[in-house]
Amino acid sequence: MLDIHYMEYGKGHDETLLLFHGFTGSYQTWLPFLDAWAEKHHVIAMDMPGHGQSDIQDDLTMNRFTDEIAVFLDKQGIQRVKLLGYSMGGRAALAFSCRYPGKVSELLLESASPGLLTAEERLARQRQDERLASMLEEEGLEQFVDFWENIPLFETQKSLPDPLRMAIRLERLSQQASGLAKSLRTMGTGRQDSNWGKLSQLDIQVTLVTGALDHKFVGINQEMERQLPAADLHIVAEAGHCIHVEQPRIFDKIVRRYLLHVEADILEES
């Protein structure tokens, strides 16, 4: 069994909301929202394997992770969850939903994908992630974070206020280089089986959220919306990959209205 660290909020409520953060994050990703989301829901915010205080093993796979989550929920006496995942956590949330559809009542994916469609794409991504893992091991965490926060995916975060940018950087620097390296090698996009072929069979309500400035993921999510039986796509204006940081008020309202079913007027999205 994996030793997965998690925090609980609103424990007395019947419905459970399970949260998966993105690469270099932790359960603290969701701290600005947890009090509001826990008003009417039992919220579990996890540290993903290799992140925060959660361990990771060299032989981990995405399928094994989903199996571990199923066992965790059974031990907690939780039959079904509402599931929210961001980026890497969104890939994991979708993989869990495809593997255990009976355990998920609703799904919200922020800047997520079903993985890579072809074996050639996955192999190329494995090579890329291996280079990143080697960078972590050879150059250390701080140099990796310097590199990571300057990749094109996070270009829009450079316009955030300095205190917020520093908070994001500190969360990344709180990780262990070895844990992140293992995460890339075991749960990276290149190592994950494609779930594109399973989207049409996923018979639950799925809310897709992407930033208008994140053009790659806008395209991915538009195609996901076409293939999913019941999906709503929200393209949020003036946001890149990390909507919950760049447009937190809109993101919070989308989550509360479409996932938690708490009445909330949605601000301008696009």
TrEMBL record:
Catalysed conversion reaction: 5-enolpyruvoyl-6-hydroxy-2-succinyl-cyclohex-3-ene-1-carboxylate = (1R,6R)-6-hydroxy-2-succinyl-cyclohexa-2,4-diene-1-carboxylate + pyruvate
GO molecular function terms noted in the UniProt entry: 2-succinyl-6-hydroxy-2,4-cyclohexadiene-1-carboxylate synthase activity
InterPro entries in alphabetical order: AB_hydrolase_1, AB_hydrolase_fold, SHCHC_synthase_MenH
Pathway the protein acts in: Quinol/quinone metabolism; 1,4-dihydroxy-2-naphthoate biosynthesis; 1,4-dihydroxy-2-naphthoate from chorismate: step 3/7; Quinol/quinone metabolism; menaquinone biosynthesis
Keywords, comma-separated and alphabetical: Lyase, Menaquinone biosynthesis
Xref: PANTHER family: 2-SUCCINYL-5-ENOLPYRUVYL-6-HYDROXY-3-CYCLOHEXENE-1-CARBOXYLATE SYNTHASE (PTHR42916), PROTEIN PHYLLO, CHLOROPLASTIC (PTHR42916:SF1)
Family under the similarity heading: Belongs to the AB hydrolase superfamily. MenH family.
HAMAP family linked to this entry: MenH (MF_01660)
Record note on quaternary structure: Monomer.
Biological function: Catalyzes a proton abstraction reaction that results in 2,5-elimination of pyruvate from 2-succinyl-5-enolpyruvyl-6-hydroxy-3-cyclohexene-1-carboxylate (SEPHCHC) and the formation of 2-succinyl-6-hydroxy-2,4-cyclohexadiene-1-carboxylate (SHCHC).
Name listed for the protein in its UniProt record: Putative 2-succinyl-6-hydroxy-2,4-cyclohexadiene-1-carboxylate synthase
Protein's organism: Terribacillus halophilus
Gene coding for it: menH
